[in-house]
């Protein structure tokens, strides 16, 4: 069962014979003569091996030889495997090196494209058919849970989170993430959807990293809307009237409602014929994009907070979240509010259509609820919004596109921007919700009326100053 090389190796090892000698086997009926020749063939040594008769001893000897041969074969195979593994490792290292070079080249290419895009922007050129906005969805968070600090919320913060008076300006991103995480646990959503708490953290990180650093439509706005939703859920006792699944839909839609917002509204997207407008056929391009990014993030196993929900239930949750995010398009404001007005006087919480309509109105309320908050919290948001509006109108002027008067820095002021919006959009919508939830009057509707009065006073002051300035100019002209 052994090869000649195996036998030679065995004999050399056991008899201290040099491996340079030559062996010759000379079998005979009763013994095997082994002649050992040196390299010069001068010396000769004969060793005889007696052959056993076919007995149990011979069988034993054969078994020993077989085992020795098998051990030798294994040893040789291990060496071969080591060689093969080493070769494969070298190949893989080479491939990794090449892939690394590719990544560097790709990053360089991206940087070059960004520089070119910025240069085109500064020159006011470029084609409207291309998407200058450069959508870059960071599906995998740059950091993972271990580097996400754990904050313990004080009892004071926990109570404040439930109220519309919560000051959203005093919190950094990690603290806002911890507050959102607390809301999901407090409402029982983690237990209801059997969420992995680590997956919830990773999902929130992915959400935060896919909000851009716009003046207004940023992660703080996302937190603002989500906190207001959490406040309305508590203030209106919604868990007593609706299901936990409804709570999960409301909160998740609020968190995701402006994902990857580019800072330029639907009117700009459509007029400039951007990639988003073309992709979504001018139908709520931004809101459709927010939905798409939300479910791209949820498609990652490490970020899928609904991974343990049954397929049919997940389909319904997905459709409901899409419905709510699409409802935040202000172009649909009149249609949605009219539908709710027709239902509110005979509202039925067991009617699925009624509940869906209410959820659409609730997310709309939260999305534009800044003026519900105290003046010192609300007013900075007006500055942020106007800054974003002015960025868009400046670009529209450069590109020869229509400019909305309420976005034109030469025509709009804070009072004129807010009075009409509060009087004709916010107050009518919140007063309709008030019919269903009387408890919101003091803490939500009355602040809106106060805010309207505040801006009307500011407008009167502005008008008086403008009139006085005009009179002074007229008098100056007469003196000349």
Automatic annotation (TrEMBL):
Q: State the free-text cofactor note.
A: Binds 2 divalent metal cations per subunit. Site 1 may preferentially bind zinc ions, while site 2 has a preference for magnesium and/or manganese ions.
Task: Please give the coiled-coil regions recorded for this protein.
Answer: none
| SUPFAM superfamilies assigned to the protein according to its UniProt record, in alphabetical order | HD-domain/PDEase-like
Listed binding positions for Zn(2+) 1 are: 221, 257-258, 367
GO MF, one example: 3',5'-cyclic-GMP phosphodiesterase activity
The EC code for this enzyme is 3.1.4.-
Q: In which pathway does it act?
A: Purine metabolism; 3',5'-cyclic GMP degradation; GMP from 3',5'-cyclic GMP: step 1/1
**Keyword annotations of the record:** cGMP, Hydrolase, Metal-binding
- Please report the stretch or stretches of sequence annotated as the PDEase domain: 141-462
Entry binding sites for AMP: 217-221, 258, 367, 418
InterPro entries from the entry?
A: HD/PDEase_dom (IPR003607), PDEase (IPR023088), PDEase_catalytic_dom (IPR002073), PDEase_catalytic_dom_sf (IPR036971), PDEase_CS (IPR023174)
The Gene Ontology biological process annotation of the record reads: signal transduction
Query: Into which family does the record put it?
Result: Belongs to the cyclic nucleotide phosphodiesterase family. PDE9 subfamily.
Task: Kindly give the PANTHER family that the UniProt entry links to this protein.
Answer: CYCLIC NUCLEOTIDE PHOSPHODIESTERASE
Q: Quote the protein name from its UniProt record.
A: Phosphodiesterase
Species, as recorded: Salmo trutta
Task: Name the gene.
Answer: LOC115205888
């Amino acid at each position: 069962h052994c090869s000649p090389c195996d036998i030679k190796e065995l004999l050399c090892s056991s008899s201290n014979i040099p491996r340079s000698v030559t062996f010759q086997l000379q079998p005979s009926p009763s013994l095997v003569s082994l002649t050992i020749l040196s390299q010069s063939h001068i010396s000769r040594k004969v060793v005889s091996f007696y052959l056993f008769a076919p007995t149990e001893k011979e069988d034993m000897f054969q078994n020993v030889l077989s085992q020795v041969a098998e051990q030798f074969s294994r040893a040789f195979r291990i060496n071969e495997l080591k060689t093969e593994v080493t070769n494969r490792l070298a190949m893989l290292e080479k491939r990794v090196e090449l892939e690394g070079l590719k990544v560097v080249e790709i990053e360089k290419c991206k940087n070059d494209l960004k520089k070119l895009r910025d240069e085109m922007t500064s020159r006011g050129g470029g084609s409207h058919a291309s998407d200058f906005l450069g959508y870059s969805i960071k599906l995998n968070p740059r950091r993972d849970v271990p580097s996400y600090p754990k904050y313990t919320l004080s009892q004071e913060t926990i109570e404040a989170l439930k109220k519309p008076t919560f000051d959203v300006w005093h919190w950094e991103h990690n603290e806002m993430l911890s507050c959102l995480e607390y809301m999901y646990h407090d409402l029982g959503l983690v237990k209801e959807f059997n969420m992995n708490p680590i997956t919830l953290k990773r999902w929130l990180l992915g959400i935060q990293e896919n909000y851009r650093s716009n003046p207004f439509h940023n992660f703080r706005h996302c937190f603002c809307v989500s906190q207001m939703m959490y406040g309305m859920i508590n203030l209106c006792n919604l868990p007593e009237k609706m299901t936990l699944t409804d709570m999960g839909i409301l909160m998740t839609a609020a968190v995701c409602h402006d994902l990857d917002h580019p800072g330029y509204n639907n009117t700009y997207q459509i007029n400039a014929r951007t990639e988003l407008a073309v992709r979504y056929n001018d139908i709520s391009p931004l809101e459709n994009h927010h939905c798409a990014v939300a479910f791209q993030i949820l498609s990652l196993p490490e970020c899928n907070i609904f991974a343990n929900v049954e397929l049919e239930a997940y389909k319904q949750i997905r459709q409901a979240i899409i419905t709510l995010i699409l409802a935040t398009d202000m172009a649909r404001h009149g249609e949605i509010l009219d539908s709710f007005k027709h239902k509110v006087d005979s509202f039925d919480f067991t009617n699925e259509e009624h509940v869906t309509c209410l959820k659409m109105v609730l997310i709309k309320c939260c999305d534009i609820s800044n003026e519900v908050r105290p003046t010192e919290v609300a007013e900075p948001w007006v500055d942020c919004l106007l800054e974003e509006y002015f960025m868009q109108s400046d670009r529209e002027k450069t590109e020869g596109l229509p400019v909305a008067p309420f976005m034109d820095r030469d025509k709009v002021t804070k009072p004129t921007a807010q009075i009409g919006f509060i009087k004709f959009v916010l107050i009518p919508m919140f007063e309709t919700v008030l019919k269903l939830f009387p408890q919101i009057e003091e803490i939500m509707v009355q602040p809106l009326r106060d805010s309207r009065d505040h801006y009307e006073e500011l407008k009167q002051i502005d008008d008086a100053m403008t009139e006085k300035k005009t009179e002074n100019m007229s008098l100056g002209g007469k003196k000349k």
